[in-house]
């Protein structure tokens, strides 16, 4: 298989089934990060991930890491932590600050460059991308953002400036999303952090993740899901 170079004249992507095995999920190169192209990508289980200043790379890994909200896992220590109620958790109060914090990781590096920042801010302004913010004494200390696809939410990135902030963001969002009819959170690639919270891998093929994506895109959420609001801690 060969990596497809995207045409600037077309928004079409190759089938996710044609993605490379090594590196896992690499599907295409090039194109742009305009809202129409990003929407086309997410509708087909494809997302951009590349180093700032380099060519845009598009991915659809197999297996796919997902989190079913009902399967979210709170450890005993996290439950004790939540009982202390140290945070105020909000939805869509400051998307720009959340994605900027995800991009600024001095000790880790980041794949979120200026082009990505601008692109996802445009998605947010048009109502397609959303953020969860974690506040402590009025300061933003954690959060996450992603792209909505009906009853499926594509998680993109999260950050934490204090212990447990990003975990609390995800747990609060799981509860909120499920309450409005959300059924699945796409975590893209499994890591120790997401696995600890209940994420697991499922196959990508059309009878698994891609089929669920297609089905859930057509399921509307209850009204008010994405309105600015304060979320219960978990």
UniProtKB/TrEMBL annotation:
What NCBIfam families does the record point to?
aat
Q: What is its EC number?
A: 2.3.2.6
Q: Which InterPro entries match?
A: Acyl_CoA_acyltransferase, Leu/Phe-tRNA_Trfase, Leu/Phe-tRNA_Trfase_C, Leu/Phe-tRNA_Trfase_N
Query: Where's it found, cell-wise?
Result: Cytoplasm
**Catalytic reactions of this protein:** N-terminal L-lysyl-[protein] + L-leucyl-tRNA(Leu) = N-terminal L-leucyl-L-lysyl-[protein] + tRNA(Leu) + H(+); N-terminal L-arginyl-[protein] + L-leucyl-tRNA(Leu) = N-terminal L-leucyl-L-arginyl-[protein] + tRNA(Leu) + H(+); L-phenylalanyl-tRNA(Phe) + an N-terminal L-alpha-aminoacyl-[protein] = an N-terminal L-phenylalanyl-L-alpha-aminoacyl-[protein] + tRNA(Phe)
Identification of the protein by name = Leucyl/phenylalanyl-tRNA--protein transferase
Q: Which organism is it from?
A: Serratia symbiotica str. Tucson
User: Gene encoding this chain?
Assistant: aat
Record-level GO BP terms: protein catabolic process
Cellular component terms (Gene Ontology): cytoplasm
Query: What does the UniProt keyword field contain?
Result: Acyltransferase, Cytoplasm, Transferase
Q: Which family does it belong to?
A: Belongs to the L/F-transferase family.
